[in-house]
Amino acid sequence: MIPGAGDRLPGGPTWRLQDHETLPSTSDLCIELARAGEPAGLAVLARSQTRGRGTRGRGWMSGAGALALSVLLRPQEGDASRASVWPFVASLALHDAFALTPRHRQSLRLKWPNDVMLADTGEAGSSAATALPARKLAGILIERSPSSADDAGWLVLGFGANLASAPILTDRSTGCLAELGAAPDPRLIAERLLAALSGRIEEMQRGGFAAIRQAWLDRAFPAGTALAVRTPAGETLGAFSSIAEDGTLLLRVGGAISRISTGEVMLAGAGASS
């Protein structure tokens, strides 16, 4: 670990932040420690990962200056029953952490269920023709203990974000926070993220999903945004309508609303990206 590792962040002992130079996977370490009885509040930051993991079994590339942070939670029974809420709580906190300036807030958008997208880097007054398509800036991997396990009760949120540079991928466009200004230090973003996550968890505990849902929608792509949803049964094209009270995606397909509970959701249309 690098100097400062294991620090308790200002404001109390809620988070115990480990700061590592390199790890195979921050989430793997969190899960290993969770199974060994580590209490909630552990946060593991790595400046690079050699075996980072993304959703759907994909690897996650952590380039130079990227954020790789995983946190360990042990939800109470009432919180655990809100399993569908965690993607929205986590992505809201990540959006909060990235909102360094008004330009950041204007350029960031959330995509169901928990991706943070860079929507446009055009300067004020630039034409739509010169605007860049939306690119994936960050993603979140959520893993929890099986209900039958002896160590049941842990939840690990794994955050991966492009801060200084973006990897070149063949199947999707990516962006980085440095496109909006100087690349922030991963430690700074990690500390901002942990503070924001505390706030969003408190918000969920006070008001349930209603407040989280509205805050998420306020930061999401607008209703009418063209989406493609891929499932084992095939691909469905439609327009974003909203999210339901249980967190499912409401997709307008023709004249009807379809409820989507699982699948890979991508922006559709010319120049769009997943």
UniProtKB/TrEMBL annotation:
Gene Ontology cellular component list: cytoplasm
Gene3D superfamilies named in the record: Bira Bifunctional Protein, Domain 2
Organism: Lichenicoccus roseus
GO molecular function annotation: biotin--[biotin carboxyl-carrier protein] ligase activity
Keyword terms: Ligase
Designated name of the protein: Biotin--[acetyl-CoA-carboxylase] ligase
InterPro entries, per database record: aa-tRNA-synth_II/BPL/LPL (IPR045864), Biotin_CoA_COase_ligase (IPR004408), BPL_LPL_catalytic (IPR004143)
Domain BPL/LPL catalytic, chain residue ranges per copy: 9-205
Residues covered by region (Disordered): 1-20
Matching NCBIfam families: birA_ligase
E.C. numbers: 6.3.4.15
One Pfam family matching this protein: BPL_LplA_LipB
